[in-house]
Amino acid sequence: MLKNKIYNYLTVEIIKNFVIVLFTFSAIAWVVRAVNFLDLMVEDGYNSIIYFKYSILNITAIVTRFIPLAFLLSLTISIIKFERQKELIILWTFGLNKIKITNIFLLIAFGVTLLQLILSLFVNPYLLNKSRSLLKNSEELQINSILRSNDFSDTFKGLTFYIERKNTNKELINIFIKDTAGNLSTVLDKIGKSQDTTIFAKKGFISKKKLILFDGVLQVANKENEFKNIKFEKTELSLINLATRTIIQPKIQETSSRTLLNCVFNRNNNSNLNNCVKGDYQRESVQTLSRRIGEPLYIPLISIITSFLLIYKKEKKFIFLKKYILFSLSFLMLVLAQILLKYTGFSYVTAVSYFAFPVITSILFYTYLRKKMHSEKVL
Q: Do 144 and 206 meet the contact criterion of CB atoms below 8 Å apart?
């Protein structure tokens, strides 16, 4: 009964440290990422609600990236803490089995691995795709916030704005517009659409999805490159067709795992797999799946390596060095996982090796650890 309480205490301490470290790293990274996302409002004209929703939906992806490192740090910190507070010596005095404690570390590692697999395979692709849909389906671009005084703006595809200044009534003064993609169409339908339109106006303002201009000239070029100038006292331009340069098509990391698996195994009966015929896309699919499935397999490995801290050494200098050596080795495994990940898309052999390496290495290290702990007990 007492041993179970001790095991529960160790488990709670490690999980508590893991949550604290993971939350700290993720919070810092999310704040930095959220600052980068400010371009959605400043440059692309999305409102603050879209910005906050988009930022929040990216949290789980950030958390997932820090899980292996957070687990390594939490496990190392916990073992060192137990050692400094002489708790480990008390545990050995009570006759607790070191292999049993190693197995507890390994069980926690499997739980963390399962957490990362769920986030990587299912949660992150869904939420990231949802965040991309926010930008794709949003019709509430704050165009006024994009147009700045005395500055050219090419935020919208095929459209360039220049505004000399804005007055206190939010009126635009001395406006130049170059439309090369036929984005603007006149509500009054005097001219119709054109693929090359230049507009000069003394002033104007934006109302809902309309740009209302006063005292200006429309210069339109038709398909035969014939130019036509039309002066106007007032005209209205529809802004419905405007599209920012923000990428609204889902990226590969925002694609569901099922779709990527279909691509890898050439099951191209899905309409979402139009790009799968391209070699680059299929290679990126293998690499993305390796990240989602293979990277979490390195977590049990680092728990086994860190468990070597439980082996007792009489010489203090070896104890001091052992902490840094084992932490460096565990950290090297995480770095190696990131390096090898880049090569998984080149061949299936490389991809399989990426999955097999942490499993085989974990078995070898665990077998050696058991022998060391057994021989230590015998001595």
A: yes
